[in-house]
Amino acid sequence: LAKTTQPISMDSYEGQEVNITCSHNNIATNDYITWYQQFPSQGPRFIIQGYKTKVTNEVASLFIPADRKSSTLSLPRVSLSDTAVYYCLVGERDTGRRALTFGSGTRLQVQP
Amino acid sequence: KAGVTQTPRYLIKTRGQQVTLSCSPISGHRSVSWYQQTPGQGLQFLFEYFSETQRNKGNFPGRFSGRQFSNSRSEMNVSTLELGDSALYLCASSFGVGYEQYFGPGTRLTVT
Q1: Nearest CA in chain B to A42
Q2: Of the four, A19, A67, B2, B17, which is 20 to 30 A from A10 by CA?
């Protein structure tokens, strides 16, 4: 399974765009990339999932280059409520082969 | 659509006792996963069930067990509780193995 590497922490200010990059050099052909957000004492919340190119929903965008060895979660115009830990996972669908660990994630701190 | 529900939300047990936690997945979801979260170890995967079959298992001792019923509801059991089992236990459901997961609010277990 592809190992993921993310920055441990990031700081931003309200209203800015935040880009969090995840490295997954050994991603396999059938792997999907999934991002989650977690607030203290709560379970992670699904943000976005993609396979290639760009995926956008009402919350974020996910950019995946052609080689798929990395991915970037983009949060437009962050607010204080976006302060959380963000996790990147890779894994296959429909098989038992998928990422089982959430790793340490990226702690995003948004300042006023 | 109702989210993932977990019962009980809070539990206090004594060392040596056993505990059973319950999880009801989102309607239509057939995969249920369990995680343990502690401040020191982060979010650790326990096991995953799909259609009543365990598909993946994390690195936890045999005191931790689980099962899934035909209606996709799941239970996890911890026997001979230890102080180190104090944690937030999270259940997540998904359409299938490897699909995006939706987490419940968790059960906060305190072992004294």
Answers
A1: B105
A2: A67
